[in-house]
Structures are given as C-alpha cells and as structure tokens.
Write a structure and sequence with these properties.
The structure holds two protein chains of two kinds.
Chain A (H helix, E strand, L loop, with lengths): L1 H23 L6 E5 L4 E4 L4 E3 L20 E3 L4 E5 L5 E5 L3 E2 L9 E8 L12 E2 L4 E3 L4 E10 L14 E2 L2 E5 L3
Antiparallel strand pairs in A: 3-5, 4-11, 5-11, 6-10, 6-13, 7-12, 8-9, 8-11
Chain B lengths: L2 H20 L20 E7 L5 E4 L9 E3 L5 E2 L4 E13 L4 E6 L1 H6 L4 H4 L3 E10 L6 E3 L4 E3 L6 E10 L11 E3 L4 E6 L4
Antiparallel strand pairs in B: 1-5, 2-3, 2-5, 5-10, 6-9, 6-12, 7-8, 7-10
The chains are: A alpha+beta, B alpha+beta.
Chain lengths: 175, 192
C-alpha cells in the first residue's frame, strides 16, 4: 500500500509538471514565424604591400654617391599594392631612423609616385604622395624613393651611415 | 488489516457513492439540440516564397551600380558599407477579426552576436515590409507593419538593410556576422 500511495503521488506530480510546461510554451493569441535565410556576412581587410610584402628592404642604394647636394634613388620603381577590400588613401609617414646620427637631420627622403608603366627611376622622380593618393582595392602604384643629402651638410656627417624606414600609411576613404 | 488498508477501502467506497449520486435525476426531463453547429478557428502562418529580386545587394551610397547583387560568400564588408537583404514570404491569415503585427528580430540577433561590429554597435539594421498581391508582382502597400485576414494569400517583401558604421576600427577586419537567427514573425494583436 505504501507503494500505491507513492505511485499516486508521482502521478500527481507529473500532472503538475505537464501543466506548467504547457503554460510556459504557450503564446497568448496567435503567432507564427519563419526564418530569414540571410546567412553570414564577412568583413574585409585593409592591407598594403610593397613589392608584395609588408616590409621591403630597399636594396641597391649607392651610398658612396651621397655627397652634399646629391641624391641616391631606387634603380627601379617599387610596386605598392592595396591587397585589401577598401579604398585606401596612401601617404608617406614620418621617417624613422634606426640610430640617432648627425646625418639624419640632413637627409631628405621622398617617396614619389611614378607612372605604372615606368621601369626606371631618376633622382626625385615622381609626384609626392602629399595628402594622399587613393588606391582602390587590388590597385597598384609604382613609387621611386630618393634620398638627398642637404647641400649645406657639415663635414661632420662625412662617412656616417644610417638606417631608416619609411612607412606608407593607408587610411580608408570612400569616394 | 492495518490502518492504512482500512483507510484506502473507506476512500474508495466514498468515491463510488459520489459517482452514483451524480448520475441520477428525479422528476420529468427532456432535451433538444440547438442549431449552433460547429465553430472553426482561424489560421496564422508565414512561409518563404520564391519572389523576384530576392537576395543580398550592395546599396552603399558610393556604389554607382547600386543596388548591386552580391554573394555574401565572396563579398567582404568594409566600414561605410550598406547591404540589403530581400526575401519574400506568403501570408496565410484567416479569422474575421484577426490582425497581426509583422516584425523581424534584427535588434535581438545583433545584440546577441559577439563580433566586433555588433559588440561595439557599429551595425545598424532597419527592416521594411511591403505588401504585394498573390502574384508577387503588384505592390499594394509599402511600409506596412500589420496584416489582417484580407491579406490572406498575399506576399510580403521583407527588406533588411544593414549599415556598417564608418567609425569601425581595424578590429572588425575579417569578422563574421552570423545572421542565421533572423526570423520574421507574425503576432496577433492583443485585444481588449
């Protein structure tokens, strides 16, 4: 008889649970829904490369030719590419020097944009990027880098060597 | 017999007596059926419909060919973009006094996502509903928010537009917005 009583209690408990579940799942009034098959959206990237890498060591500067008032420059234009998904306005960032040297203050480093058909650079070739040159996604431009030692450089800079890097900054623009 | 058994027997006897009492009517009685017949409930349903012009579009202000059909598997979103998703649905609504609200759970879905766009509120979605006849060709009303039983069998074009804020930072690059939980809902309006 104890078993019967327990069973009755169990049935009663079960009934309460069912009733609560039914109430919880019920919307008052009629309602219906259907999924929107919108799927997923993926963000793009913004990436600039120079000679297909993020950081390109310029080779072939002939430092022996760098006298006051003279320039050295890249022999062939370097290719800058927007490999991202947004249009980028490319500017020349502030040059950073590897070590503090007197000569640093007398160097003028210019990144000039030349025609995409250009195959050689000359001293000071190209248009400065100025406030920015816009590269559409996947577009490329060619640049020449010219380093000039100021004409009034003091003798103390003779024989000095220095290292530097020139950042090219891309900021998204919408036409 | 122990006490428990006696108590159980007594309870059973009591139930039998109660049942017997309920079934008995004294004196004359008669009955007749009313002509009320049967009453049938209405229905409310919304289901996808293969209408024209469905899918994803790039409608960014600076896209000269907007709205330009895109595939979200290859399109990559950048700050400042505006994308539009269009899908059609068929309304099934019967019930003489049935009025139901249309809604898309866009805000709930975006609030629940963990990508940088959603977390930083750099996405903003708006949804509009346009009512078309059963052929899905003739627009009957633009910018509706509710339907009633006179719209049974008609089509609704749902336009979901999502803005990607140009305040977004580089953190949002390669993020994926999963809009799989989006759904359109018809809910009967409450009644007094």
């Amino acid at each position: 008889m104890v078993q019967v009583a327990l069973a009755a209690t169990a049935a009663f408990t079960a009934a309460i649970v069912v009733a609560l579940t039914a109430a919880g799942g019920t919307f008052a009034y009629l309602s219906t829904s259907a999924p929107l098959s919108a799927g997923t959206i993926t963000s793009g990237t913004s990436t600039l490369t120079i000679q297909n890498v993020a950081s390109y060591p310029i080779a072939g500067f002939d430092a022996t030719a760098l006298l006051p008032g003279a320039s050295v420059f890249t022999g062939t234009p370097l290719t800058v590419k927007n490999t991202g998904d947004a249009s980028l306005s490319v500017t020349q960032g502030a040059t950073s020097f590897g070590t503090a040297k007197t000569i640093n203050g007398y160097l003028n480093i210019v990144v000039g944009r030349v025609a995409n058909s250009a195959t050689t650079c000359t001293a000071g070739a190209g248009n400065v990027l100025g406030s920015g040159y816009t590269l559409a996604p996947q577009a490329t431009m060619k640049v020449c880098v010219t380093v000039t030692l100021a004409a009034g450089s003091p003798g103390t800079v003779a024989g000095q060597s220095t290292s530097f890097s020139i950042p090219l900054d891309g900021s998204q623009v919408r036409p | 017999m122990n006490k428990f058994t006696k108590a159980s027997i007594a309870t059973g006897a009591g139930i039998v007596l109660l049942l017997g009492g309920a079934g008995t009517l004294a004196y004359w009685n008669d009955s007749a059926t009313t002509g009320a017949g049967s009453i049938t409930s209405g229905t409310l349903d919304i289901s996808s419909y293969a209408g024209t012009g469905a899918g994803w579009f790039d409608v960014s202000a600076d896209n000269s060919s907007a709205p330009e059909s895109i595939s979200t598997s290859t399109f990559r979103v950048v700050p400042g973009d505006t994308l539009r998703y269009v899908e059609w649905f068929t309304i099934s609504a019967t019930g003489d006094n049935l009025v139901a609200d249309l809604a898309v759970n866009a805000d709930d879905v975006l609030d629940g996502l963990s990508d940088d766009w959603s977390v930083n509120d750099w996405v903003d979605a708006t949804t509009t509903f346009d009512l078309y006849d059963a052929t899905g060709v003739t627009q009957e009303a633009a910018g509706i928010s509710e339907i009633d039983s006179s719209d049974n069998g008609k089509r609704v074009r749902v336009t979901f537009e999502i803005d990607f804020d140009n305040a977004a930072t580089n953190d949002t690059q390669t993020d994926v917005l999963n809009l799989g939980a989006l759904e359109v809902t018809l809910t009967q309006q409450t009644r007094p």
